[in-house]
Amino acid sequence: MLKNFFTMDKKSLKQTWKKLWHFIWEDNSIWSWIVNIILAFVLIKFIVYPGIGFALGTSYPIVAVVSNSMEHNSLNFDDWWNVKISQYSQYNITKQDFNDFVLKNGFNKGDIIILKGSSPADLEVGNIIVFKTYRPDPIIHRIVKKWKESNNYYFQTKGDNNNLSINFEERISEESIIGKSLFKVPYLGYIKIWFVGLLNFFIK
Asked: 58-194: CATH homologous superfamily?
């Protein structure tokens, strides 16, 4: 009798699993879609994202660009540099220097930037870093100056599309830096921007 009980329980469990599998992967109902969205969010938030962060050595391996401060306004590099040359000459950054920088043509609002953790000693002028400020969202700008005080490194950044550094980025401490950019994925960040905008609309 005990054997039959466990056999029936196993069958029941198998049937339940088959129904659940069908509901998640094959059912086209609205509830199935909602469950799929929730599962995808949980998977990305708690497994995929932390896994990528661990591999790249930063707690923020992927960031969405939410401002226009790094855009080059569709100008080619030569035309953009002719407009900006005076802004970078004060940092002794030449056209050739900038031409060798990562993402020399900047990036756009809505792009996604992949980050990697980096020690302060390895960061260089021209690197694009993400750092924390008093603002809710981290800032992603390019290093234009680096110096050392009392065995600690400090950095100044500027958005490629900005005329000047903002006051909070004139002296960035090591502890504020989240990571440096590796490459961009165009426009995929609009998913986050639209979602946050929609969420704010309903909250208000």
From this structure: Umud Fragment, subunit A (2.10.109.10)
